[in-house]
Design goal:
Rossmann fold, 363 residues, alpha/beta, eight-stranded mixed β-sheet, 47% helix
């Protein structure tokens, strides 16, 4: 009996012991699970942080890429703009160069004073007008366009003669052919050309006995009054003309060139085009003569767009270096103008050459 009781006691203890071990294992397993859970939580946090860092890096990269793309786009736009501006500047420079070359091209055709097929020519005719300046009835010549019409308005060129001439002197230069040939070629506008007697005094006959006297020079300088007060009003009243300086030109040869400079620079609001072919001395002071202008006053108003042309014959021994002197004075006074020299002396070889290039550039 005692042995059975001992057996049951031992067996119960073993069962309890085994049960304790099982609980311990379970507890251990639970502890392990808990440990694993604790260890896993930091991993999740680390991964989240890593993801956030990656996300931040990607965002920064995207922002950087966007900024870079914007900068590249802006750079490309600036580059395109610079290129367009460069192209525009180049084209403008090329246009200016072409214009400059055209302005500096003073060649004339071989037949520029001859009758040409297809061209129409007006005839020079004499007119008379009353001059309050001289107190006499004065003569002048005029060339009208072939198809002259009162329904149209024409610009006017006043063309002046030299010291010994009169209103007929320019006939030796065939101006009706020069002008009409340029009109036929489409290189100038139809115009009225007036040839005055520049010797503005009662005795206005050509080649007078006092040709090289101060009195005679004064008669030429007095023409500014006869032109402004008598001849121009007569032309405006009797012919269909376009008014304004953009439609009015004055030019002359030798002494007439001197007067064209004097009148043109004295009346820049009236004459938009001024031409002087081998102009005589007297515009500026020389020797004991005071001149029509002081050197510093030989200029046009600031901002003036008047066209001025001076022509010199390379072998001109009469007016010598005066055309060049006028040119250099205008340069010093910063007056924009055209100056060129051509073969020939003090004669129609040069004067016709000058007239052709002047008419080609007016109106």
């Amino acid at each position: 009996m005692k042995k059975k009781i001992w057996f049951y006691l031992v067996t119960g203890a073993m069962v309890l012991a085994f049960a304790g071990c099982g609980n311990a294992e379970v507890s251990q397993d639970t502890s392990l699970d808990s440990s694993q859970t604790v260890q896993e939580e930091p991993v999740e946090s680390s991964e989240s942080t890593a993801v956030e860092e990656v996300s931040s890096e990607e965002s920064a990269t995207e922002e950087s890429t966007t900024v870079e793309e914007s900068e590249n786009q802006a750079s490309e736009e600036i580059s395109v703009q610079d290129t367009e501006e460069t192209v525009a500047e180049k084209e403008e420079s090329e246009d200016e160069e072409v214009t400059k070359q055209e302005e500096n091209n003073f060649d004339v055709p071989l037949n520029f004073t001859s009758i040409q097929k297809g061209a129409k020519y007006g005839k020079m005719q004499e007119i008379t007008y009353e001059s309050k300046t001289t107190g006499t009835t004065r003569k002048a010549n005029i060339i009208l366009p072939v198809d002259y019409s009162e329904d149209k308005e024409y610009p006017v060129l006043y063309l002046l003669h030299g010291i010994g001439g009169d209103q007929n002197e320019w006939k030796g230069g065939k101006p009706e052919y020069i002008v009409s040939n340029l009109v036929a070629a489409g290189e100038t506008s139809e115009m009225i050309v007036v040839f005055p007697n520049v010797r503005a005094r009662a005795n206005d006959a050509g080649n007078p006995g006092d040709i090289y006297t101060v009195e005679h020079f004064n008669a030429f300088d007095n023409f500014i009054n006869d032109l402004r007060d008598d001849l121009m009003p007569f032309i405006e009243e009797n012919y269909s003309i376009a008014t304004g300086k953009e439609n009015t030109a004055i030019a002359g040869l030798s002494m007439g060139g001197r007067e064209a400079l004097y009148i043109g620079f004295s009346m820049p609001e009236t004459f938009g085009y001024i031409g002087a072919f081998c102009p005589a001395p007297g515009v500026l002071p020389y020797h004991t003569e005071k001149g029509l202008f002081l050197e510093e006053d030989f200029r046009l108003p600031e901002g003036s767009d008047n066209m001025v042309m001076i022509v010199k014959g390379k072998t001109d021994g009469v007016v010598a270096e005066w055309p060049e002197t006028y040119h250099k004075t205008l340069e010093a006074n910063e007056v924009e103008h055209i100056y060129y020299e051509t073969d020939g002396g003090h004669d129609f070889t040069v004067w016709k050459h000058g007239l052709y290039n002047f008419v080609k550039r007016i109106f």
